[in-house]
Specification:
With 156 residues, the chain is α+β, with helices and mostly antiparallel strands. It has 4 helices and 7 strands. The chain has a 7-stranded mixed β-sheet, with helices on both faces. Helix 1 (10-19) packs antiparallel against helix 2 (25-40).
Length: 156
């Protein structure tokens, strides 16, 4: 089941986030800031959904409409607990995010990622789910670490 985040989800989401080895400490802190904002404020520009089964949370995603657009959504994070990766949970979360965009009359869903080798599986995940690279900015995060923007367009 995919549902909106609840306050009591925080510690489980923190545990999941901190188990992801490809995230550095700063990335983990940013994810937690977004989670805390979503839990503590109704005025955030994004929303968080969790994947729950048998009262256990195995993943989540964070999505929001891009400022100054009328139909472009950013998929900020999609995270699945390491022991449950490659079991279809990421695909379920991604499909839910896509449906969220379509239901809100969105045209684009964008997902930014790194060009580092450690993100190969992430990039392959987007390719397998019919996303295309729509932009690449060389040496964006650091020398040798480019920003890759994946996107999927929806006809409305």
């Amino acid at each position: 089941m995919v549902r909106k985040i609840k306050k009591e989800d925080r510690e489980l989401l923190k545990t999941i986030t901190y188990q992801i080895n490809i995230f550095n400490d700063e990335e983990k802190e940013v994810a937690m800031e977004l989670i805390d904002d979503a839990i503590n404020s109704a005025d955030t520009s994004y929303i968080i959904y969790v994947y729950e089964q048998n009262e256990n949370i195995f993943g989540y995603y964070i999505i929001g409409q891009r400022a100054l657009t009328d139909g472009v959504y950013d998929l900020y994070w999609i995270v699945v607990s390491p022991e449950f990766q490659n079991k279809g949970i990421g695909k379920i979360l991604l499909k839910h995010a896509e449906n969220y965009v379509i239901e809100n009359k969105g045209r684009w869903i964008l997902a930014e990622t790194s060009s580092k080798k450690s993100y190969d599986a992430t990039r392959n995940f987007y390719f397998r789910n019919s996303y295309s690279i729509i932009s690449e900015i060389k040496d964006f995060y650091a020398l040798g670490d480019s920003l890759i923007v994946f996107g999927k367009y929806f006809k409305i």
